[in-house]
Amino acid sequence: MSMSMTRDNLWEVTSRTIVYAAIGAALYAVLVQFSFLLPGTANVSLRPGFAIVTFFGVAFGPIVGLFTGLVGNAIGDQISGWGLLTSWNWSVANGLVGLLAGLLPVYLLSGISNKIVMAAAAAAIAVIVGFLFVFTDLIIGTADTFDTALSANYLPVVISNLISAVILTPILVLVWEPIKEQMGR
Amino acid sequence: MNITPRYLGRGSWLSGRDPRVLILSLAIYVFAVIQVWDIRILAVMWLIAFTYYRTAGIPFRAVRLNWGYVLFFVTFVVLANTIITGGELRGARLEELHIYGRVPLLNTPISAESVTYAIAQLLRFTSMAALGFPLAFAIAPGDIGPAFARLGIPDKFAYAVEMTFRFIPSLAADVRTTIDAQRIRGYDWERAGRGPVGKLTRTVPIMVPVTINAIVGAEDTIDAMDLRGFGTGRRSWLRQLAMGRVDRLVIGAFLVLFAVITVLSFSGLTRLWTPPFLISLAGG
Hints:
heterodimer, A: mainly alpha, 65% helix, B: 10 helices, 2 strands, flat
């Protein structure tokens, strides 16, 4: 069960897919500008806006999730001046998280009937697996050793985004579900 | 919070180029620079990048905060890499390093090699940012969709990219309005919550209404697109892009740079090179 997504319409690209993807990416680029440092850490900042990636994946499917993470992160970097492609592998990692958040409810987690638990589980697995892509920093040279990639890149981003995604995705799903029913979607 | 994309390079030489030039130049440069650790080559590439940046005519006062963010982030990456990797920089063995001293508590060696490595990282990232800035500030907002479409991205996704840029200003305004509306109800964004969960849940009164309003409001856009038969045939773009001779020359120059760097890299000539004067400072 993944909201209104089924295995048959998972890869459909309609005007609805395009608009939701664009809104997700724009929201992510805007809301990701809000962040605060996790107490007791030096470099782990919480980014509540990250939950937009997992929520759009869970609610509207893998294509919307992929676009939200990939384009939203790239444009967020673009707006800050960092550049659209400077950290292209991080944008891909964000996109993978959105993609997985869209796929997991339909495949791996389809047995979970509680939407809140399912949303939290999908978000958590998607973050842990999707961000493995940041280990490409070892090839690109942004991280010199596995230890650096793990302790300076992967773990901080996973801890921070896991907290945001696991708490905020179910809240957004909880609010969206009745509205979706009301709208007949 | 000003996060609206700004067309700061309007009228500059670079803004007059086909927007695909700015996208392709950055992509080619990124794949070239990531092969290089030799700071002599990086210095040349850095000069090329900043010469290119100058042609975008972006006023510094308008982007100094962005540059501040870039420098802060680059410094963090450089320090994290240097401190954590310590003696294992680019495969160098600890006994080969020319050590100046050690970081207190962490005992990480600060050596001629680690300083060179830090300089190399700094040159790489600042030059990549220099090529990224024109993409952010010297492309007319209306050119983004057609540029991606002409680069071979399916029309629907190119349209989605353009739409994303168009949604950003209105969504940023929605965020500001929502914060103000919640403040009137007694909500204080600045007040710290208790622990990470408390801090996150304090963002709910902003996140939820902004997100749900955006989704509900999207129905009008979806209806408008459906009524105009979006996606039923090949899309045409109001803005027609045509690459001129100068545009081809710029892309060609970046391709030559990429080819030269790739050859040097395969020949083993782009590895970390430590300047002799840095080695002599260590008494080596």
